[in-house]
Sequence to fold (151 residues):
Amino acid sequence: MIQLLNDSSDGDDTGFYLAVDVLGILKAVEAVDLLVKYLDYQPGFTGTSLLSKPAVRGLIQIGEAAIPRITEALMSGKSVLHEDDYWFRYNARTALLHIGGVQAQETLKRVYDVEKDERLRGWVERTISEINRANRDDHRPRPAEIKWSPS
Fold:
């Protein structure tokens, strides 16, 4: 599956989505680095929905085991796909929101303290509040059950 993901990242959208979904379902921790690399890869779609962010969905499915690498992406990561790293870091934040829990919240607090981009600072602040509310209500925000299939 990891090889399929590598092979698919250069134009085979169906293969990319399939590989990410399978790796997420299997909670394939060995795929975390590759999924983080493609945080801002949106093959065939645009928008902010999780449907258009396959690597984010895969990381969410893997869960807390992905948090350390997602943290690195937020703190110092740079997009390998685009010159501007805004969406790369925004999508890392989105993954942490949906993974939720204390570890994700603590990561976001550290990011907030050093973040210079005001757009991301605002998103991080709102995400911390959402996770805090979810922790207090004894549930985590969960991504919508999105199933993708090629048309």
Residues 118-136 form the longest helix (19 residues). The chain has one domain: 2-136. Residues 2-136 form one domain. The mean pLDDT is 81.
